[in-house]
Design goal:
Layout lengths: L3 H4 L35 H4 L25 H7 L21
Amino acid sequence: MVCTPCEKKLVSLAAPDKWKEGSNNSKVGSSGRKLNQNKLLSKSAKLRFNPYESKCKLCKSKLHQDKAHYCQACSYKKGICAMCGKQVLDTTNYRQSAK
């Protein structure tokens, strides 16, 4: 559960741009991709998301969403945004289990 301002922070796609003229991938040289580059040693390989790094502030379970502070279950139960913690939903009249 994410609020509208935090939707912009979400990662949009896992797939890169299409390989065509004018895309970010098609530029060869200093401005675009590098030829004969080892992808395991590149900068992008070191900045990958580690799912075991962050934990939920409420239940201390592992988070699978990048830049989130609350897990999906806790954010739905409390009616808060998973990333910023703002109140998104009024859950006073909801019948929710304690699981």
